[in-house]
Amino acid sequence: MSASPSSLSVQLYSVRDQLEKDFLGTLHALADLGLSQVELFRFTSDSAPTYDRALGEAGLTAPTAHAGFLDLGDQDEIFAAAAEVGVGTLILPNSPEERWIDTGGLDRLSADLNAAAARAARYGISVGYHNHWWEIETTVDGVTALEAFATRLDDRIVLEIDAYWAEAAGARSAELIERLGNRVVALHVKDGDLSRDTRKQVPAGQGRLPVLDILAAAPAALCVVEFDAYAGDSLEGVAASVAFLRAQGLR
């Protein structure tokens, strides 16, 4: 497959333990893998200056970031901070399972996200949503709850599909991605035995996930390497995933 020159990233949550010990050194280690961009986690207006300085020193950018912006009384501050750091898309990393069991929950969540998207647009920021398993194993309106949710969203809201969790929920993730279409602008890519035991996650290409089919389903999407947990050295795990994905033509 072919991909754009900036199609690879890594979710910094994957290396959170290393970041805690040596924040800047870990960012440099990722840059040494040839990565030019990362995805931020737990992004807030308070963490923004630290991220901004460190990214600049490591020669990295952050086009995407995970942030719990729906929980904020004043969202303007975080959207302004994202724009300052150069984050183009703020992604809601999750939403409680109870919101995904019926149309009422989806209506309320989508209304909140649509309102946030309108506010974020004033700062040149897009917003998106990242799935786990519960949005997909539940059915609403005859389809997965995630697909029912997507029909309720403003056109400018994007999706970051965690292909591992989609597959673990019983979906054929490549087919799900194709059904969701152009709204899918990013993928979380990891591998494993497709269980919910995060300690069994492995680098891309070393488990049961049909990675090549997933990449082919969204060839223009940003491919974000990620581990919820990793039994070995997570930097080595990231490096192995990056090497595998580069062998598929991503850069």
Observed structural traits:
single chain, alpha/beta, 11 helices, 40% helix, globular, disordered N terminus
Return residue spans where pLDDT drops below 50 for at least 5 consecutive residues. 1-5
How many individual β-strands?
10
CATH class: Alpha Beta
Q: Count of helices?
A: 11
Note the run of SSEs as H and E: EHHEHEHEHEHEEHEHHEHEH
Strand order of the largest sheet: 1-10-9-8-5-4-3-2
Molecular structure report:
By secondary structure, the protein is an alpha/beta fold. The chain has a single domain, classed as TIM Barrel. It has helices at residues 16-21, 23-32, 48-58, 76-85, 103-121, 134-137, 145-150, 163-168, 173-180, 211-217, 234-247; strands spanning 8-10, 37-40, 61-66, 89-92, 126-130, 139-140, 143-144, 158-162, 184-189, 222-225. The protein has an eight-stranded parallel β-sheet with strand order 1-10-9-8-5-4-3-2. The chain has a two-stranded antiparallel sheet with strand order 6-7. Helix 5 links the parallel strand 4 and strand 5.
